[in-house]
Write a structure and sequence with these properties.
homotetramer, alpha/beta, Rossmann fold, Dihydrodipicolinate Reductase, domain 2, six-stranded parallel β-sheet
Chain lengths: 346, 346, 346, 346
């Protein structure tokens, strides 16, 4: 039994971590940190947890709080953890950071896309990028885990085997993705009001969404050389879910069977990745509430392209679920512990 | 470990039973019965269960199927179970019926409201009405469980303590309720198409909704004499959830403290009923995916009325969850087994 | 051709006034006033009006602005108009106020329910309550129009003929209403975020919603003596629409025919009120985008009660549409001018 | 004043034609044809038109019906018009066909993608493809108008100027599009039930959606040589709206200014096409209920690609609105007559 603290516990991802850890056999939640809601009962904010969680939010000294726990989850705005993390803190607790602070190895790239000065660039090299199915071995050994973004988790996992096996011309990769609104967070912004989002669809962050360099970096590792993509996210009126549609030109002679084999090779034994049967297309509702990634593809012989599709729950596999999966790997627990919830339909 | 079969497994309530039983330690699902989808893989219909359930729907002889299991759930249209159930079948397996066939003791009332001839009226007296928090003792001893309707579960539990303790004038009770669309089932009807339901609200079944006599019968038992109510259900554009708003005139001298005490007396020890703190109003999102009933109330001193409010997930406490809770009672399991899921927000 | 100014033009109701006036033959919009967005292009905020409205929001001196127009619409927070209106301003332009400032005749009642000091109580007596179908004659002669609230418009019109004709026991009237989220306005509040509202239903303002005294005052006039009601509003996940369900005990001997006759007597010639055919229930989608009020009812002979139901678009008949209808009456235009849009389905 | 008949009047597109023609000064609706609902009051099906349309659906002999009108709209399944149309009928009335029967010039292509035998291939050459902004001159002279599909209208108009002016490498064009659910029609299918569609996103028709050859044919004309694209549509939970995101590689040296100039050249004088200001992205809510096409773009200098984006209301510009616009052109009316509705927000 380990002890966990959560910083940024009152955001949607923070609350999802709380929900998942409450069902985890090996973890006790020690404290819930929230600057905005310090002193308020956590269950008065998230009333789904009424009679289940009976403690207030706190905002005490982080160094002291770190003494009380084995792992700290930070579901905080970009820049927060980079501004407080030190080797001393890392010695006290393992950190699983849901922000982008330690995801990108090149600090200049981070600073350019995030328009922020990185306050602890020297720690970046200690961080492991926590895409569990790809980096499992490194994750097991780290004390600083950079939990991937929601779009990136879905986008990378969907394309990874084809890039890794050299089946597509990586320079032709175009990613379009759809996201539910919870990805925008719980901040009080007009743009996220029900009446501004409901009954509408739009693209956003066109050509400059911050998940772009993260996707590019990871797929470049898989590719063996740098690649650049176009990533266009869209907002659609639903609470949860990410759907990624990725198009790329097939290398000469590549068949649907080759693609299927590549997916099977990399994901055939993965319990959280479900490879669709022939011609089936993922739907976000079929992964809602779960840690699953559903992946399908279709070859277009007319254009010699492949259309790859992936679906995840942005708050689970795209945030809190993957964070818990990373924690399980980092502490040697069963990787599925706390993550066995079956998707809920409808 | 007991064995269960589910008839009507491809409806929304049927699928929810499957989902809950998959997380239940004491139950193995033996077969999934569906006339419409016999021979098809269950997971091809409910792809949330892809790689989790690996069996086809069947539609074999029910008598033989009953030999294989300890309990049969029927999530079927009104009239189905009444037309097939016999003492012989009841001797083979316990039945938990999610239809209305055995809920109403007076067969004439059933036939009038449901416009159906009851094919096995002699079995009605063997049935126990499965409102767990009220009838726990009788439930434990029955082999034929009439699982309450979704509106009725929410409506009755919200008003029960005040009726039972004589705090309100039961003849003044007016119930208005809101339901998500999953309550209408998975049949291919124009009225339930996305574009017919989305962005709209309406009442339906006004003065003649079939849950009316069920609510009246149970509250009449609590009242000690017959009562009649007005029950008006409404359809609102969401997947899950029932919200009941119930207004009644207080008997002379009754205070908010009296009401609070009555709720505490009857529900203070109930793990699935959460009594809101003063002035808090339930919201369906805070019970979604769970077996909770959230109940709140407000006294209006101007009009000497009380407004009681209850919220449930119609597919869990309003159907499959309560069915599993009843099964737990009937088989002597921990009453919360398989039902500990925390509501998921958002 | 008259000239109009709109104060509070960037709220949802303000924008709806703009939209409706743009289709009105007798009105030119002279200016759009918004404190929060002064200087910004109106069409940059409401991009539905891109290439249609080409002027910035202003926040100039109201007295000077009043010189430029014949009518001023105020779609502003409670208390705003009461704090700026004077006889001098009223001499310059007619005012149509969408706030509650001049709706309630008894200033003490206003101050109690709104928890605000009324800054110009002496002007209240000059105001006419703008429920067009009831007060048409007085509306024609006023310079200060108190435009009714959304819930109140729907609630009063639905019950008015039965109260006026003495068909129901007015003391037994219970009103439950459902509202879309646009009624909550465009302010940046967590409670109105998509993910807080979507997939949920709840009551709010239970026993203390501010539309209660407004409904009571108007129905008391109809009744000939004071009545008190219970009014319980609910929030449901849709953009527009109000649905009111009203239950009351029938006076002795009253029949469905009497009720039908009462509705016909009062509304038979009203172009914006549609009396449903027997047994039909209104739905908000069938009035969306229009100035219609759809009204239906059902007598419950078992309980001797009537269930009355009304549906409106909260931003049209419940706000901007009724404001334009009032303007039409006040200036002697065709009452339907600018209001002939047909409801849009789906 | 001309007379119009509508075949397939009870589908969503049919109803939208009715709604638009009711606001058109030059057209009288003569009859509403519906096989499924023959004999039923039209307003009992579309109750938004209660007290507005007072006639039953009919299913009489089409040849006789054609004698009564100047124009017939067919909002019917693929294959219907092709199976009934003759030169004789065309001599009686002009036809505006919302199905795909006469959109594609090559009958083999039609038969391959639609898996239907074309019953009147000899008439295809008489048809004009009714993309108003591109084919205005030919539309004016035809008696047989093939009204474009919803996805195609949005997809083609968004890319047309760049293809026509040779600014992009047309072979690299990738189109991803999102659609609201009304595009799927009003048929009673499980897949379109509220609970199957709400809170989910998915792709469909991947590599084989029937709008693909239609987009390819029209863009090939613009390109001057055949092109093939990948078109991937997605279903998102909203009633109306299409959003197209189109990515293509820029030809050498092409700048954002060149692209802007191309759009201005082709659409600068178009009243229904709104070119977004720099960096603004269309949103479907800003065109809802209107005939507008909102188009924006962004150049990605990193990848040398352009991302083009278009938004329409699928039932208006994507179906009924464009049909009315085509009628206006065919009969010499003001092209905007009946189509001046301002988008409604929210």
């Amino acid at each position: 039994m380990i002890k966990a603290g959560i910083i940024g516990a009152t955001g949607y991802a923070g609350n999802e971590i709380v929900r998942l850890l409450l069902g985890h056999k090996e973890v006790e939640i020690k404290w819930l940190y929230s600057k905005s809601f310090a002193g308020q009962d956590y269950a008065s904010i998230y009333r789904n947890l009424f009679k289940i969680v009976d403690s207030p939010c706190i905002a005490d000294d982080i160094s002291s709080l770190a003494d009380e726990v084995d792992v700290i989850f930070t579901a905080t705005p970009q820049g927060f953890l980079a501004s407080v993390l030190t080797d001393e803190l890392l010695a006290k607790a393992k950190f699983i950071d849901l922000s982008a602070d330690y995801r990108i190895k090149d600090v200049a790239t981070y600073e350019k896309w995030y328009k922020l000065e990185h306050k602890s660039p020297e720690l970046i090299k200690k961080a492991v990028y926590g895409l569990c199915e790809i980096n499992r071995k490194d994750i097991a050994g780290t004390r600083l885990l950079a939990n991937p973004g929601c779009f990136t988790t879905c986008s990378i996992l969907t394309a990874y085997p084809l890039v890794k096996e050299g089946l597509i011309d990586a320079d032709t990769l175009i990613i379009n993705a759809l996201s539910g609104v919870s990805g925008a967070g719980r901040g009080a912004k007009v743009a996220n009001l029900f009446c501004e989002v409901n009954e509408s669809a739009k693209a956003y962050g066109v050509t400059n969404h911050r998940h772009t360099p993260e996707i590019e970096e990871q797929l470049s590792y898989a590719n063996g050389s740098p690649i650049m993509i176009n990533f266009t996210p869209h907002l659609v009126p639903m609470n949860r879910g990410i759907f990624a549609t990725e198009t790329a030109t097939l290398k000469s002679g590549v068949t649907a069977e080759d693609i299927k084999a590549a997916y099977e090779k990399h994901y055939g034994n993965e319990q959280f990745i479900r490879l669709m049967k022939d011609d089936q297309v993922p739907e976000t509702r079929f992964v809602e509430g779960s840690n699953f990634v559903d992946i399908g593809f279709k070859v277009d012989e007319r254009t010699n392209r492949v259309v790859m599709m992936g679906a995840i729950d942005n708050l689970v596999k795209g945030a809190a679920g993957q964070a818990v999966q990373n924690m399980n790997i980092m502490f040697g627990f069963d990787e599925a512990e706390g993550l066995r919830a079956i998707p809920m339909v409808p």
